[in-house]
Amino acid sequence: VNQTGAEYCFIITFVQNSNNSLNMSAKLLLFALAISVVSSCCLAYSQLDFQPMLEEHNRVFRQLAFTMNTNRAVMVGYEQSNICFDWYMGDQTAISTTYNNEYNACVNASIAAKQALSEQSALDRSELLDAGNSICSALSDCESREDSLQFFQCYYNASSDNTGVLFNISTKAERISNNLTILYKAVEDTELFCTNEARTKNILSLTESTNKLNSCLHGEWNPVSTTEATTATTTTTVEPTTAAPTTAAPETPDGDGSDSDDAQRAPEEDIFRYQPRTRMNKWNIMRRL
């Protein structure tokens, strides 16, 4: 944090000493970038590892100062530079939010796992408390004995009667403690692996974001054109058109009037072809008569 504060002081001093070379929009951009870093750091309610993000922001601050000092921003124009840094601040906020959610998810899962282990051992804990309270109660009864002989005899009898109970408390507490130590270590290792994975993902995202910013300032990449290309590639589904149904009778092609057997006609359209007597020979007709 001290290093980041020094970087902020460097940027502010640079702005104050460069009134002739920087316009008002560039100054506001520097302060907006600094505010975005502070606001992103305040997103998490747990103690997160912000060192990768701070290192990336420090590098961007140096790059921004060098860019404005050498007038490299004129290559892409101040408007394009504002577009680049507007995208960068939004992307950094999204990355910080994602890292915050993933990190806290790891921590919350660890807390829930330890709480579950405590609930599982609640019965053993209650039994040990009852055993300890019974011993304490037996020894407390000896405090009312005013005679020294009766007092020491009471302590002797109480301790002798509860020797087995004390040994049981000792062995049981040791066994449960060793078991919980192993289980807690497994939970903590899982949490460490989860947070390291989130940290690695965060570093890669920050590096990619910074590289895109550098490419944008060099005119090699434009977040606006990327958005437009994504919108242009969106496919639209065209509903197929279907002809409206009609109740008109279907048209039949005009034929030459021939009754050829090859003609494809329904039975009701050719009464002579499908009449039973037209399919008989003359001799069968005479026999029927």
Can you describe this structure?
The chain has one domain (about 1-230). The longest helix has about 55 residues, at about 165-215. The chain is mainly α. It has 10 helices and no strands. This is Protein TsetseEP domain-containing protein. It holds the Pfam family DUF725.
In total, how many beta strands? 0
Structural class: mainly alpha
Beta content? under 5%
So how many helices? 10
As residue ranges, the low-confidence spans are 1-25, 41-46, 229-233, 235-250, 255-280, 282-289
Assembly level: single chain
Q: Report, as a whole number of angstroms, the end-to-end distance.
A: 122 Å
Number of domains: 1
Rg measurement, Å: 45 Å
Order of helices and strands: HHHHHHHHHH
Q: Summarize model confidence as the mean pLDDT.
A: 70
What helical percentage do the residues reach?
over 70%
Q: Give the overall shape, derived from the CA principal axes.
A: rod-shaped
Sheet with the most strands, sense and barrel status: none
Biased composition (Basic and acidic residues): 262-272
Protein name: Protein TsetseEP domain-containing protein
Organism: Ceratitis capitata
Pfam families: DUF725
Summarize this structure briefly.
Residues 227-252 have a biased composition (Low complexity). The radius of gyration is 45 Å and the shape is rod-shaped.
